[in-house]
């Protein structure tokens, strides 16, 4: 059935909007389900959930919510070349940036950001993961556009997408904000490992930022989720936009079982009833 509208239609005011898809990770947390019969574990971002394109393809289409394809980049790892080299990614070949191996999120941002700023010093950047499956793309596209609009209004902040997970997981990085905000921006006051009470937000892995973030990346060993983000928080430069909607990880067999149980018990919020 042909779509009546393009859910990934680029925002009309996207002149300096760029998007970066992080696809250099090892994607190994779901390897129990992504390992071939010959024993080769395929990184999750190169796998398909629906039997169509890979999760990487989904992320690249998702990026079109804020940026034209000619301003969408992907960072990949050279040792994954056999999985990404022949893929039709729908972006210029020069925008596929390969690093020798996975060096974490900080380097995954820094290396392509140098490339982007050289081409557009006024760039505003959406950073997004390549291993998410999204059932309602329209809702997420609205949140990404809103966060980018907030950055355009006030370019002094890094804005992350704050999400309330369906199932609390101690592996997530939880954030505490200064007051609640529905459909708006809140300052991030701290990160906590084990939140108290319900309704805490997690860092959803989506960020909008500008080149000034260079000042918070000090070296090759930086871990983006640790020192840079904590410094941004301490200096009042990190904010969160609350994304409304169902969210759950599917990184492990435990997660898979949880989601299958929701489906089997007719409690899956993403299920479309006929």
Mean pLDDT: 81
* Radius of gyration using CA atoms only: 18 Å
Q: Which overall shape is indicated by the principal axes computed on the Cα atoms?
A: globular
User: What class would the helix/strand composition place it in?
Assistant: alpha/beta
Question: Major beta sheet, specifics?
Answer: 5 strands, mixed, barrel
Helicity level, as a percent range? 25-40%
What is the gist of this entry?
The chain is an alpha/beta fold and 274 residues long. 26% of the residues lie in helices and 20% in strands.
List keywords for this structure.
7 helices; 20% strand; 274 residues; 9 strands; Spore Coat Polysaccharide Biosynthesis Protein SpsA, Chain A; alpha/beta
What does this structure look like?
The structure is a single chain. It is built from seven helices and nine strands. The protein is an alpha/beta fold and 274 residues long. The chain has a single domain (17-164, 174-244), classed as Spore Coat Polysaccharide Biosynthesis Protein SpsA, Chain A, CATH 3.90.550.10. The chain has a five-stranded mixed barrel. A hairpin with a 7-residue loop joins β6 and β7 (185-192). It is globular and about 45 Å long.
Question: Layout of helices and strands, plus pairs?
Answer:
Blueprint: E1 17-23, H1 31-34, H2 55-63, E2 72-77, H3 81-84, E3 96-99, H4 104-119, E4 124-129, H5 137-153, E5 158-163, E6 174-177, E7 185-192, E8 201-209, H6 227-234, E9 238-243, H7 253-264
């Amino acid at each position: 059935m042909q779509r009546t509208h393009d859910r990934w239609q680029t925002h009309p005011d996207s002149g300096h909007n760029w998007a970066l898809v992080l696809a250099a990770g090892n994607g190994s947390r779901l390897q129990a389900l992504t390992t071939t019969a010959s024993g080769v574990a395929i990184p999750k971002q190169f796998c398909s959930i629906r039997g169509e394109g890979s999760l990487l393809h989904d992320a690249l289409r998702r990026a079109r919510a804020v940026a034209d394809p000619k301003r969408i980049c992907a960072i990949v790892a050279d040792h994954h070349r056999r999985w990404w080299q022949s893929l039709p990614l729908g972006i210029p070949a020069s925008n596929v940036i390969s690093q020798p191996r996975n060096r974490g999120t900080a380097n995954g941002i820094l290396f392509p950001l140098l490339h982007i700023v050289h081409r557009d010093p006024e760039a505003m950047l959406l950073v997004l993961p390549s291993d998410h499956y999204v059932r309602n793309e329209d809702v997420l596209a609205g949140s990404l556009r809103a966060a980018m609009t907030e950055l355009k209004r006030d370019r002094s902040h890094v804005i992350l997408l704050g999400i309330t997970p369906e199932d609390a997981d101690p592996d997530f990085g939880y954030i505490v904000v200064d007051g609640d905000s529905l459909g708006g921006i809140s300052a991030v006051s701290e990160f906590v490992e084990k939140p108290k009470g319900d309704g805490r937000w997690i860092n959803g892995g989506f960020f909008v930022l500008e080149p000034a973030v260079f000042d918070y990346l000090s070296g090759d060993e930086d871990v983006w989720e640790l020192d840079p983000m904590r410094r941004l928080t301490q200096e009042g430069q990190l904010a969160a936009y609350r994304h409304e909607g169902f969210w759950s990880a599917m990184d492990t067999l435990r997660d898979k079982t949880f989601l299958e149980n929701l489906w089997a018990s007719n409690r899956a919020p993403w299920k479309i009833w006929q």
